[in-house]
């Protein structure tokens, strides 16, 4: 099927964001593991796998629409130097993904590509209800119980 060039380009932009998210989560998860924060390692490693799944869905859709996935482009990474900075960096990344997904969903509506829109709705739900919500909770916990208590709970 030949899809809209605008939608294919927008999906490639989303793909760059997902690949960057994968890279950032991968690095952060390994930093947590190295520092002995096993719970954070496991959760962020899970997020890495989720982002890989998101990227796979976008790649499949681009291919279905007759496009070529751009596996080279990446958004800049923001690697934190400590746990609060890492969590905030990941949260900022997810908030950007939410905006990007909504913008591309609107484009899909304009281009009458409802299947791509529906696929992106699934990614949006996962991003809002799982990734972003969990990261907001962690940042909030640090504020409520203090950094040292939070870090102790993540060992």
UniProtKB/TrEMBL annotation:
InterPro entries (alphabetical): Bacterioferritin, Ferritin-like, Ferritin-like_diiron, Ferritin-like_SF, Ferritin_DPS_dom
Protein name in UniProt: Bacterioferritin
Top-level taxon: Bacteria
Role this protein plays: Iron-storage protein, whose ferroxidase center binds Fe(2+), oxidizes it using dioxygen to Fe(3+), and participates in the subsequent Fe(3+) oxide mineral core formation within the central cavity of the BFR protein shell.
Pfam family membership, one: Ferritin
Catalytic activity: Fe(2+)(in) = Fe(2+)(out); 4 Fe(2+) + O2 + 4 H(+) = 4 Fe(3+) + 2 H2O
Domain Ferritin-like diiron, residue spans: 1-146
Claim: Cell membrane is one of the keywords in the record: no
Keywords assigned by UniProt, alphabetized: Heme, Ion transport, Iron, Iron storage, Iron transport, Metal-binding, Oxidoreductase, Transport
Similarity section: Belongs to the bacterioferritin family.
Regions crossing the membrane: none
Taxonomy of the source species: Bacteria, Pseudomonadati, Pseudomonadota, Gammaproteobacteria, Aeromonadales
Alphabetized Gene3D superfamilies for the sequence: 1.20.1260.10
CDD domains registered for this protein in UniProt: Bacterioferritin (cd00907)
Any GO MF annotation of the entry: ferroxidase activity
Entry EC no(s): 1.16.3.1
């Amino acid at each position: 099927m030949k899809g809209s060039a605008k939608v294919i380009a927008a999906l490639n932009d989303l793909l760059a964001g997902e690949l960057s998210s994968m890279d950032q989560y991968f690095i952060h998860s390994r930093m947590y593991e190295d520092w002995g924060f096993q719970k954070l390692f496991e959760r962020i490693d899970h997020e890495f796998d989720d982002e890989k799944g998101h990227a796979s869905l976008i790649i499949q859709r681009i291919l279905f629409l007759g496009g070529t996935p751009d596996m080279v482009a990446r958004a800049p990474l923001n690697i934190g130097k400590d746990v609060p900075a890492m969590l905030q960096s990941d949260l900022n990344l997810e908030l950007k993904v939410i905006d990007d997904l909504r913008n591309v969903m609107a484009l899909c509506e304009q281009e009458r590509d409802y299947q791509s829109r529906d696929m992106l709705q699934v990614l949006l739900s996962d991003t809002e209800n799982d990734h972003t919500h969990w990261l907001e909770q962690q940042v909030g916990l640090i504020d409520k119980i203090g950094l040292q208590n939070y870090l102790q709970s993540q060992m």
